[in-house]
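A favour, since you know our C-alpha cells better than I do. Just paste the record in under my message, thanks.
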Amino acid sequence: MTIFLDSAGSSLPPREVVDEVVGHLRREAEVGGYLAAQEREADLEAGYGLVAELLGARPDEVAFTDSATRSWLTAFDAVPLAEGDRVLISEAEYAGTAIPILRRTREVGAVAEVVPSDPRGQVDLDALTAMLDERVKLVSLTHAPTNSGLVNPAREVAAAAHEVGALVLLDACQSIGQLPVRADELGVDVVTGTGRKWLRGPRGTGVLVVRRAAAEVLRPRLVDLRGARWTGPGEVRLREDARVHEVWESSVADRLGLLAAVRHALAKGLDVIEREVGERAGRLRDGLSALPGVTVRDIGERRSGIVTFTADRLAADEVKRRLAGRGVTVTVSGAPSTLLDMTRRGLTEVVRASPHYFVGLDEVDRAVELVGEVTAR
C-alpha cells in the first residue's frame, strides 16, 4: 500500500477524471479527433463558466492552456514593459517565473526588484508599500510556494499595488484546488494555475484568468488563429476576451478531464477541501516536529497543504529514497526552484510532503512513524 504525499507535484486523479480522458481517447480512435471534439462542443464551451465559478471570474475572463507555466508566460509576455519600468517579486518567487522576469526586464531596460519577507516569511506589506511608485508596472506574486507551507497575503498585496496602478499576476499553481482562490475576492488581475496538482486533473492542462480591467492593459503577442482572425491580406483582429491567449491545438481529452476535476472539486466544496487538507498537513507537521533529528521548515502565518522538512543525518534525496522503499511517496525541493527564499534561510534542499484530503489520518500517522524509522538509521 502506498501513502501518497505528493499532490503538490502531480496528484492522483479521481475516477471520473480518468474515465473522461480515456473515454474521449477511445472515441477519437473511433471517429477521429475532429468529430469527437464536435460531439463535446457544448461541454467544452460550458467549461469556461465552470472554471469561472471556481476562480471567481466571468466566463469571458477564462482561458485554457496546456500548463500553469504556459498560462503565466502568455500573460507575462502581454504586460507592456519599457525602459525604466519596475517589476516587483517576492522572495518566494518560483524559478519558472523568475527566469522570464529577469530575462525580459534586462532586455527592455526595466528592473526586477525583490520585496523582502517579514519575520514570518511572507511578503512584508510595509516594505511593499514603501517600494511602490508609478514606475511599478507589475507585482508578480507566488500565492503558495513550492518549498514551504507559506500562503502569501494576495488580497493585501493587490490592494497596495493597485494604489499605483500596477498589475498583480498571481501564480496560483500550488493553491488552486486546495484553497479557495477567487480573483474577485482577492482583487488580483491575472491568475494562473494547473490541473495536475491539487485540482487532481490531468497533466498538460492549465487555466488562466484575465480580468476585464487587466485585459484593457495587456498587449497579447503570442496569438494564433484561435486568438485572432485574419480579416484581410494585411489585417488581423484580436479577440476581446481571455481566449485571445489560447492557441488552436489542444488535447480535448485532457481538457474534458480537467473539467471533470473542477466539477469534482466544486461538488466537494473548496472550504471543505481546505479544512481537510489543513487538518492532514497540520497533523503531519506536528508529528514530524516531535521526531528527533527532524526539522520542519515551513514558514508563514497562514499555511498550505505543503509540509517541508530536513533530517540532520540524511540528505533529502536519501530520505525520499528510503521512504519510497517503505511505500511513502514524497519529493524533494532544491534551492534552484526558489533560490531567493532558500538562500535567505540557508537551505539547499528540503523533503516535501503534500497530503491531499484522500489521505487518511491513519496514513498521516503511519508516514510520521516511517520518517522516524528511516531517519533514525
Notes: The two ends are 23 Å apart (CA to CA). The CA atoms of residues 179 and 274 lie 5 Å apart.
